[in-house]
Write a structure and sequence with these properties.
Shape: elongated
CATH class of the largest domain: Alpha Beta
CATH superfamily of the largest domain: AF0625-like
Number of helices: 16
Number of domains: 2
Radius of gyration: 31 Å
CATH topology of the largest domain: Aminopeptidase
Helix content: 25-40%
Structural class: alpha/beta
């Protein structure tokens, strides 16, 4: 995979990096073509003009990735800092429509992670901004900030050179599931944190101040030119545009994931996970407050590629959630074991409560429901008397409960004696012994086996 590094003579930081690039590796000087030096799969090109004027030259390059080494100037971000970002113009002008350059998500992630490993200097990913905008080769800017003192600092130039040179050996071709980022400040700290703490990459990103100017065409272009699979919203900092953009992204066929979704999407491939989300959304499922879980049996089938694409259609498992809730209260580990041995996708709340279950379309939902019902019955028998009427499709659950009125009728006053009886201990009042069975009555409840709630989420 051939990467071209472009440095400019008009940029102090760029020249600093170029010097250290040439010191760090045994480059070979070229005799023809725009690139002046080559080293392995890297090419180095030093231009005399500013980066934003290089659109025509870039079209002549034979490259898979372009890295612009530049300075970063900011009054807000003081002190030494390394930044990286993609380029694009979401406003447009009299001479050019709004457009974005093609992003290089994998390269950006590798470079910023390497920068983080090489020093304790702050590393930040910025949102998409400035040109060149019509670059059709995946590209990124890597920068040294934030003042002339930092741009010309040899130590910083050497660290940046090492990070860029690592792209010659790091696996740029490996797939990286990519998100388009929305919301937050220009220095996308929350996105950066997720980038470092998860396996995903980021393509184009847009700050809160840019959101109102994002047209449907630009959002679509951001996904296409990032080769992104989903969106991440910095939800607390989306402003008034959050609902509009969420609907827009969903209508374009992409999912909007939370940090917890990204970090805990389970042991299925990203393609499978996102497809499962899309299918469940068609059933009207919302994912606020719940996470998708995939049973071990279903994960094994997906991993073995033993399932046809029809398995990405699901049927709702109509087992009454009240029965599930009772079984989980008795022995949640045993209930989850029941799920794991069946091919099931289920929704789970943060407190561990299972609120809805689905089975692949090719599975027999009746067989799975019956297996879970039998399992739940055995679990419930640990605490209750249980009867099942197949004819009425009802489960009858009985338990003995302390009857306070009955205890009072036998002369037991509220207080310590009440508590003893309620905990199954006999008591004595004068010469009379009152046993727990004297004050306990049998309470029987009937539960429909089938769910009466569409998804059991309320």
């Amino acid at each position: 995979m051939h990467s071209v590094i472009i440095c400019s003579e008009t940029d102090d930081a760029s020249q600093n990096v170029a010097r250290h690039l040439l010191k760090r590796a045994p480059w070979t000087q070229c005799s023809d073509g725009p690139a002046q030096w080559t080293y392995g799969n890297l090419q180095l090109l030093v231009i005399k003009d500013r980066f934003i004027k290089q659109e025509a030259l870039i079209r002549e390059l034979n490259a898979d990735v372009i890295i612009f080494s530049s300075r970063h100037e900011s009054e807000k971000q003081k002190g030494p800092v390394f930044t990286a970002h993609f380029t694009g113009d979401i406003n447009g002008s009299q001479h050019m429509s709004p457009t974005l350059a093609r992003a290089a998500p994998r390269a950006l992630k590798l470079v910023v992670k390497r920068l983080q490993q090489l020093s304790d200097i702050k590393v930040l990913v910025e949102v998409t901004h400035h040109c060149p905008c019509t670059v059709n080769i995946p590209s990124l800017f890597v920068e040294i900030g934030s003042s002339k003192f930092d741009w010309t600092n040899d130590a910083l130039g050497d660290i940046m050179a090492q990070a860029i040179l690592s792209l010659d050996s790091l696996p740029l071709k490996l797939k990286c599931v990519t998100a388009v980022g929305f919301g937050g400040p220009h220095y996308a700290q929350r996105h950066t944190d997720i980038l470092f703490s998860s396996e995903i990459c980021y393509g184009h990103m847009f700050a809160t101040y840019q959101l109102e100017r994002l047209s449907p065409a630009i959002v679509q272009e951001a996904f296409e030119k990032s080769q992104a699979k989903f969106a991440y919203f910095d939800r607390k900092k989306m402003g008034a545009e959050g609902d509009r953009l969420r609907l827009l992204v969903l209508n374009l066929g992409y999912e909007v994931l939370r940090k917890s979704d990204i970090q805990n999407h389970g042991d299925v491939s990203w393609e499978q996970y996102l497809r499962i989300r899309r299918v469940l959304r068609r059933y009207g499922v919302t994912f606020d407050g719940v996470s998708i879980q995939v049973s071990a049996s279903l994960r094994d089938s997906l991993a073995a590629h033993a399932m046809s694409l029809d398995y990405f259609e699901f049927k709702h498992l109509e087992l009454n959630p009240a029965i599930i809730k009772l079984a989980c209260a008795v022995d949640i580990e045993s209930f989850k074991h029941l799920i794991e041995i069946e091919k099931i996708v289920y929704l789970e709340r943060k407190d561990g409560r299972i609120v809805s279950m689905f089975v692949p379309a090719e599975s027999s939902s009746i067989n799975v429901t019956n297996a879970l019902l039998i399992g739940c019955t055995e679990i419930l028998k640990k605490r209750y008397e249980v009867e099942y009427s197949e004819q009425k499709s009802k489960l009858y659950i009985s338990e003995r409960k302390f009857n306070a009125r009955l205890a009072q009728s036998l002369g037991v006053a509220e207080g310590p004696l009440f508590a003893k009886l309620a905990h199954g201990e006999p008591i004595r009042i004068n010469s009379k012994v009152i046993k727990p069975e004297d004050v306990f009555t049998k309470v029987k409840k009937a539960f429909d086996v089938a769910s009466t709630d569409k998804f059991g989420q309320h």
